[in-house]
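Lecture notes, continued. The same structure-token format from the folding unit now serves as the input rather than the output. Read the line below as a description of shape only.
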């Protein structure tokens, strides 16, 4: 899959509130609705949680994830990752390129980002 989709960079992330200042900061960032300029994939290794994405009408779709699940998040799609009551989620995050840019662009400022405009044109330009 890495070769097929051009993923050259991957890292393993563990989210668990109270595990340290850096982890708590990452959890806060993951819980804020954001998009990325490039596609990313996430494969759940341990624990469970939720990924929320927006549908065509801007409603949230909540996706429960558990070990073995994989999500591919297109560039420009607003999403967020939320821990469940078990407070543990470990996943592999994959991006294209050897030195990926996984900068989060937060809603609503990211509405003007070129990746968001491309996403809207490609997937959302039709009425609800």
């Amino acid at each position: 899959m890495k070769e097929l989709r051009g993923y050259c960079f991957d890292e393993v992330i563990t989210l668990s509130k109270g595990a340290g200042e850096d982890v708590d900061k990452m959890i806060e960032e993951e819980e804020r609705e954001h998009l990325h300029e490039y596609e990313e994939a996430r494969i759940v290794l341990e624990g469970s949680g939720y990924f929320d994405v927006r549908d065509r009408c801007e409603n949230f779709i909540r996706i429960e994830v558990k070990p073995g699940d994989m999500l591919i998040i297109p560039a420009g799609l607003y999403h967020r990752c939320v821990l469940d009551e078990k407070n543990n989620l470990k996943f592999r995050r994959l991006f294209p390129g050897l030195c990926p840019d996984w900068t989060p662009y937060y809603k609503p400022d990211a509405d003007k980002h070129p990746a968001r405009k491309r996403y809207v044109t490609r997937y959302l330009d039709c009425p609800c």
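Point for the exam: The chain has a mean pLDDT of 90.
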